[in-house]
Amino acid sequence: MRSKDKTQTHEQQRVLTAEQDALLDLYQEHLDHFFESIKASEKVQVEIETLHLKKILSK
């Protein structure tokens, strides 16, 4: 298959437009940041609960 034919075949198989693909990438980036902030907040919550338990046990 010639390279021009490969390019045409690849373009025909694309599901998203370039704009939609860029928007999807941006959305995935936002999701990544969201999940990272959830992980960070869970770590803080565990630290708070640990300190609270230590305080209770030290009494």
Describe the structure.
It is a single chain. The chain is 88% helix and 0% strand. It is built from 2 helices and no strands. The mean pLDDT is 88. With 59 residues, the chain is mainly α. The radius of gyration is 24 Å and the shape is rod-shaped. The relative contact order is 0.06. It has helices spanning 3-13, 18-58. The chain starts with a helix and ends with a helix. The longest helix has 41 residues, at 18-58.
Backbone structural class: mainly alpha
Note poorly predicted spans.
Answer: none
Q: What proportion of the residues is helical, as a percent range?
A: over 70%
Q: What's the number of helices? A: 2
Give the mean pLDDT: 88
The percentage of residues in β strands lies in: under 5%
What key attributes describe this structure?
rod-shaped, 2 helices, 59 residues, mainly alpha, single chain
Task: State the gist of this model.
With 59 residues, the chain is mainly alpha-helical.
List the helices and strands and how they pair.
Blueprint: H1 3-13, H2 18-58
